From TrEMBL:
GO terms for molecular function: FAD binding; monooxygenase activity. It comes from Rotaria socialis. Keywords: FAD, Flavoprotein, Monooxygenase, Oxidoreductase. Residues 10-183 form the FAD-binding domain. PANTHER family: FAD-BINDING DOMAIN-CONTAINING PROTEIN, MONOOXYGENASE, FAD-BINDING. This is FAD-binding domain-containing protein. InterPro entries: FAD-bd (IPR002938), FAD/NAD-bd_sf (IPR036188).
Length: 241
């Protein structure tokens, strides 16, 4: 694959999730004079599918996103929970602290709000389901389910855990099941939960059982997010796909 170093490069990104959009924003901001960025997303539009609940960002992720000007809207949104620093304590069954440390900045952000901020000023081609790519002498050609194609200098696969781009590039790579089942949900604030909130303030409380069971609960204002996990080594790939 060859290209003229003086011509504008076209970067094709398959996958319009948080990772693909953040990459597009950074490339566009820092290399806008020499490259063109196009994102291809299989969804028919921005709001056709639920984007999940909140995402927790530690200082490394926050530092990267701070370089993207459009993300400030998400950082300052009323639903975003921000900590200048946070402390982690591990206690045994008698509530004796066995381990503790303090770390730097942390933010808990609504995924849909963060994605909306990352979509700003980005060329996103909706309803584009990736099928395959072909390496050419002057770049790469991407083929989509609707019969259309796109030509670019470089293809980046940001299409998730079941990436079709990765499957074509490394067909023998297999996912390994971690042996843990996780179920999560939300519950609306009530009097009992309000009493709990007064006890734990803005803390996230996580409970770990002897046999690998886990539970955590965190308030995000009107709702509480909960997650329950347990070991299950008998699950097959077909069960989780």
């Amino acid at each position: 694959m060859t290209s003229n170093s003086n011509e504008t490069k076209t970067i094709l990104i398959v996958g319009g999730g948080l990772g693909g959009l953040a990459l597009a924003q950074l490339l566009q901001q820092e290399l806008s004079s020499s490259i063109k960025i196009i994102v291809f997303e299989r969804d028919a539009g921005e709001d056709v599918r639920d984007q999940g609940y909140f995402i927790t960002l530690h200082h490394m992720g926050i530092d990267v996103l701070k370089r993207i000007s459009t993300v400030e809207d998400a950082f300052s949104h009323p639903s975003t929970i921000s900590y200048s620093q946070y402390q982690l304590k591990v206690a045994d069954k008698s509530m004796k602290t066995t381990l503790e440390w303090t770390s730097s900045e942390l933010k808990v952000i609504d995924r849909a709000i963060l994605r909306r901020s990352l979509l700003k000023n980005i060329d996103v081609q909706w309803n584009k389901r990736f099928v395959s790519y072909t390496i050419l002498d002057d770049g790469v050609e991407v083929h989509f389910e609707d019969g259309s194609t796109a030509h670019g200098t470089l293809l980046v696969g940001c299409d998730g855990a079941k990436s079709l781009v990765r499957t074509q590039l490394i067909p023998d790579l297999q996912r390994n099941y971690a042996g843990v089942v996780n179920v999560a949900g939300t519950v609306e604030q009530n009097e009992e939960l309000l009493n709990i909130k007064q006890l734990i303030s803005n803390s996230l409380v996580q409970v770990l059982g002897d046999e690998g069971h886990g539970l955590f609960l965190i308030s995000t204002g009107r709702f509480w997010f909960w997650s329950l996990s347990w070991p299950n080594k008998n699950r097959t790939d077909a069960d989780i796909s």
